Inverse folding.
């Protein structure tokens, strides 16, 4: 039995006549009559009582018509639902983001606005480090991601820089460099030459790690890396205990850790941290495609790869 047989049957039932049904279906009457007869032979009972001027449904035909209509209606609903998923109107969007990227106001504003515009799309947020983001994206375990500096630039992933923000130094609030108690003092990078640095582990964020080391060397010293942590938030907490200093993107100041002061870097050794949107170059998830288009329309940046 084919779906077209159900459609033929329902049109004949609605028209009550093979000739009108054939015209409505844009086919000849004899082939239509033959298809209905083949359907009756397949199911083992008559659907219509043939009359001199038309046909009427048998009792079995009436029951079959109700179920056939439900089947076609359900198929139509399934196709429409699948089409909405393909268009990104419904479905689930998995977003990976590093802890520092989650503090950037653009990230939260973008996700909030997208959810307002597309309330039928479920959004899952997964916090990862930069290396994990790239791995999950490559494996299709997250659909898009917000990160700082990509670990690498594989050809099957695209990276769009949304913003560049300055890095700031995090010091304990009783550190000699902030003894003047200015609201946000400026610090020379070379003034940190003898400090213990706390950085996010190199495998997790190699790009940011390398940038900090390079900036320190330009300032005339090689930093002493006393501790490596899994997340920037962990580094800020360790600074509050007096175990060292760290550098983070300026938007991390939104994390109000007691006992620390965020200090601007004096030029010429100012460091910047990008905010990058990463996504597969070829996407099969409709919600992800719609999200990337939304981001590109509202927050245009330079494409780094892909």
């Amino acid at each position: 039995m084919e779906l077209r047989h159900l459609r033929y049957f329902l049109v004949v039932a609605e028209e009550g006549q093979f000739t009108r049904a054939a015209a409505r279906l844009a086919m000849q009457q004899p082939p239509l009559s033959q298809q209905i007869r083949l359907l009756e032979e397949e199911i083992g009972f008559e659907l219509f009582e043939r009359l001199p001027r038309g046909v009427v449904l048998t009792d079995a035909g009436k029951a079959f018509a109700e179920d056939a209509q439900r089947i076609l209606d359900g198929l139509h609903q399934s196709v429409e639902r699948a089409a909405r998923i393909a268009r990104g109107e419904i479905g689930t969007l998995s977003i990976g983001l590093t802890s520092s990227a989650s503090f950037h106001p653009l990230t939260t504003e973008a996700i909030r606005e997208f959810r307002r515009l597309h309330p039928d799309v479920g959004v899952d947020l997964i916090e990862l480090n930069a290396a994990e983001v790239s791995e999950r994206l490559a494996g299709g375990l997250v659909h898009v991601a917000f990160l700082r500096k990509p670990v690498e630039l594989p050809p099957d992933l695209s990276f769009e820089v949304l913003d560049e923000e300055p890095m700031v130094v995090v010091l304990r609030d009783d550190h000699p460099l902030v003894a003047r108690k200015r609201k946000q003092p400026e610090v020379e990078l070379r003034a940190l030459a003898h400090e213990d640095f706390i950085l996010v582990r190199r495998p997790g964020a190699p790009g940011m790690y390398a940038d900090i080391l390079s900036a320190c060397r330009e300032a005339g010293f090689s930093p002493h890396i006393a501790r490596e942590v899994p997340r920037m938030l962990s580094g800020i907490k360790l600074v509050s205990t007096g175990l060292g200093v760290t550098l983070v993107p300026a938007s991390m100041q939104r994390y109000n850790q007691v006992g620390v002061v965020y200090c601007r870097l004096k030029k010429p050794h100012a460091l910047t941290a990008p905010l990058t949107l990463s996504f597969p170059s070829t996407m099969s998830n409709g919600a992800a495609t719609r999200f990337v288009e939304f981001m590109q329309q509202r927050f245009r940046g330079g494409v780094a790869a892909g």
User: Anything to note?
Assistant: The longest strand covers residues 157-172. Residues 301-306 have pLDDT under 50 and may be disordered.
